[in-house]
Design a protein that fits this description.
The protein is built from 15 helices and 39 strands. By secondary structure, the chain is an alpha+beta fold. Strands 1, 29, 30, 31, 34, 35 and 39 form a seven-stranded antiparallel β-sheet that branches. Strands 2, 3, 33, 36, 37 and 38 form a six-stranded antiparallel β-sheet that branches. This is Heat shock protein family A (Hsp70) member 12B.
């Protein structure tokens, strides 16, 4: 079967604008943007993808940055002792009584848009600004997931600061990454004064597994702008998927590093008998020793939590679900190899069920009491005071629990109380009496007094979303999938996993199904530490599942009865079927690390130097045409061409990012090749 890229037959409408009609090239001479044509030298049914072991560059140290929605931090390890993970220094500032192994994801820019500070320093400085002065400063918080929710993410996408002013998102992220780069390098210089900085550090950035390719490319572009690495040394930066990082770390854990929630006395916070989980591990070890077969486990990450089934030896293997980002879910199989490689059995899925959902529920509660219009005005006119209020709520949110009996007091900033009286003509106590919210009162100390029922209600939408994503009532739920059958242990990791409300809900829902719910001691640092280990051995995840179907549009010879009549195109006496979707990789297809999909191209015209080929994607596995419902243009493949020479492009779909390389076949010399997912 002959296949011609959909951008072929110059001057014809084939999946792009039909307005131009230059002199057509012969059939098989594709038309693309910039009037670049290409001709395929491979049939539409491509040969079986080839697997090639990825080449690993040598680095002296790996620095991982866990860029979270609520909090962020970095850690590092040296190649000489890769499993000795060094956490970043304790952060200055913060809340009394709280361990500061991470810092809030807060960025403060001057009124002119210059970097001022990040983390606790940014939050505290903004808090101390005069209210009128604060209106001019740009303060960003919890902005990470904005690039995931953006439907048309580009390099020009804007982010809105607390005061309503906007700034390019790329610059905001670059400021934050540059802060971590400088902080980490300073610490490395103090520990190793003689270590050269250039090209000796491998950087790792964590992202949710459910992020699409544009969001991953956006983070890479921000890293380039921040100076972490250069485009010429792109391999110096790795994108790590959060649930994978959790799996990589948790497979190293031992029994004394775990808390088994199923053996905890309700309300006591103490562990009960650990013999049962210990015996489970010994049984798993013996099974693996006898069978030498791999074991399967389930990973959920992105909001604070992790699932896993089964361990070998005296170690646990699993994945993770973080509490700040949306829920990420993947299923991994621990392969019976000396290095304990992982194989993904279920593509990443998830939803917006992070701890930020509790914050939004609190904001909605304030809107019910004081009016949504007032809350919106207060946020805009008194941004620093709004930050104070969210900090006060965060402190009380951490103390919420299913067995708590007493009410919780939340301090309202004086600015809130005064602003409400001026706007409404009566005080906040009157507003509480008049509202329909019965579980929140005004305390004599001048605070909002929330009953434990009111606080727990704020958690319910988020927690229920997590449970419904797992429990197999709907056929689409996690435990209903065949790949997940037989899971015995569930590991909660990440920021939200510290919540007693979430722990109790997960244990109540899944304990009855025979799942053991386990929490690592360093629950909030699991992703970060796993990212360091991933940076030292990125080949640990050997096989991944493609989340989407990817391919290009091509022309095939028209076959009556097989192709729709409306796709018929006749040119120079030859009959073509337009808009055919030629698949590179299918959704849910297992793709090994280093496995390549190859295509060959040659210039269609003398002197042609460059070609752009549109890439399409969809969730379905059986799409036939690029015009089918759900199929959309998602990016462009760019190739530099040598005149009159054949160029072979090799695409890899088994890594955390889709990658492409190309060589001139006649000289075996590498040529420039790139995939752009942000050009739409």
């Amino acid at each position: 079967m002959l296949a011609v890229p959909e951008t072929s037959l110059q001057g014809l409408y084939i999946g792009s604008s039909p307005e131009r009609s230059p002199v057509p090239s012969p059939p098989g001479s594709p038309r693309t943007q910039e009037s670049c044509g290409i001709a395929p030298l491979t049939p539409s049914q491509s040969p079986k993808p080839e697997a090639r072991a990825p080449q690993q560059a040598l680095f002296s140290v790996v620095v991982a940055i866990d860029f979270g929605t609520t909090s962020s931090g970095y850690a590092f390890s040296f190649a000489s002792d890769p499993e000795a993970i060094h956490m970043m220094r304790k952060w200055e500032g913060g809340d009394p009584g709280v361990a500061h192994q991470k810092t809030p994801t807060c960025l403060l820019l001057t009124p002119e848009g210059a970097f001022h500070s990040f983390g606790y320093t940014a939050r505290d400085y903004y808090h101390d600004l005069d209210p009128e002065e604060a209106r001019d400063w740009l303060y960003f918080e919890k902005f990470k997931m904005k690039i995931h929710s953006a439907t048309d993410l580009t390099l020009k996408t804007q982010l809105e600061a607390v005061n309503g002013k906007k700034m390019p998102a790329l610059e905001v992220f670059a400021h934050a990454l540059r802060f971590f780069k400088e902080h980490a390098l300073q610490e490395l210089r103090e520990q190793c004064p003689l270590m050269p900085e250039k090209d000796t550090v491998r950087w790792v950035l964590t992202v949710p597994a459910i992020w699409k390719q544009p969001a991953k490319q956006f983070m890479r572009e921000a890293a380039y702008l921040a100076g972490l690495v250069s485009r010429e040394n792109a391999e110096q930066l790795l994108i790590a998927l959060e649930p994978e990082a959790a799996s990589v770390y948790c497979r190293k854990l031992r029994l004394h590093q775990l808390v088994d929630l199923s053996s905890r006395t309700p309300g006591s916070g103490r562990l009960g008998e650990r013999r049962s989980i210990d015996s489970s591990f010994r049984h798993a070890r013996e099974q693996l020793r006898r069978s030498r077969h791999s074991r399967t486990f389930l990973v959920e990450s992105g909001v604070g939590e992790l699932w896993a089934e089964l361990q070998a030896g005296n170690r646990l293997h699993g994945g993770g679900l973080r509490g700040e980002a949306p829920v990420d879910l993947t299923v991994h199989q621990l392969e019976a190899t000396l290095t304990g490689t992982l194989k993904e059995l279920y593509k990443a899925s998830g939803g917006p069920y992070g701890a930020v959902g509790v914050d939004l529920a609190f904001e909605q509660l304030l809107g019910r009491i004081f009016g949504e219009d007032f809350v919106a005005t207060f946020k805009r006119e008194r941004p620093a005071a709004w930050v104070d209020l969210t900090i006060a709520f965060e402190a009380r949110k951490r103390t919420a629990g299913p067995h708590r009996a007493g009410a919780l007091n939340i301090s309202l900033p004086f600015s809130f109380i005064d602003f409400y009286r001026k706007q409404r003509g009566h005080n906040v106590e009157t507003a509480l009496r008049r509202s329909s919210v019965n579980l929140v009162k005004w305390s004599p100390q001048g605070m909002l007094r929330m009953s434990c029922e009111a606080m727990n209600e704020l958690f319910q939408p988020t927690v229920s979303g997590i449970i419904q994503h797992i429990v197999p009532r709907p056929a689409e739920a996690l435990l209903a999938q065949p790949e997940v059958q037989g899971v015995k242990l569930l590991f909660l990791v990440g920021g939200f996993a510290e919540s007693a409300v979430l722990q109790h809900a997960v244990q109540a829902a899944l304990g009855a199904r025979g799942l053991r719910v386990v929490v690592p001691h360093d629950v909030s640092l699991t992703i970060l530490k796993g990212a360091v280990l991933f940076g030292q051995a990125p080949g640990v995840v050997r096989v991944r599942r493609s989340p989407l179907t990817y391919g290009v549009g091509v022309l095939n010879r028209f076959v009556p009865g097989r192709h729709p009549p409306d796709k018929l195109l006749v040119r120079d006496g030859r009959r073509w079927c337009t808009d055919v979707f030629e698949r590179f990789v299918a959704a849910e297809q297992s793709v090994a690390l280093g496995e390549e999909v190859r295509r060959s191209y040659c210039p269609a015209r003398p002197g042609q130097r460059r070609v752009l080929i549109n890439l399409y994607c969809c969730a379905a596995e059986d799409a036939r045409f690029i015009t089918d419902p759900g199929v959309r243009k998602c990016g462009a493949l760019s190739l530099d061409l040598e005149p009159a020479n054949e160029i072979r492009a090799a695409m890899q779909f088994g890594d955390t990012e889709i990658k492409v390389t190309a060589v001139d076949v006649s000289t075996n010399r590498s040529v420039r090749a790139a995939i752009d997912f942000l050009s739409n």
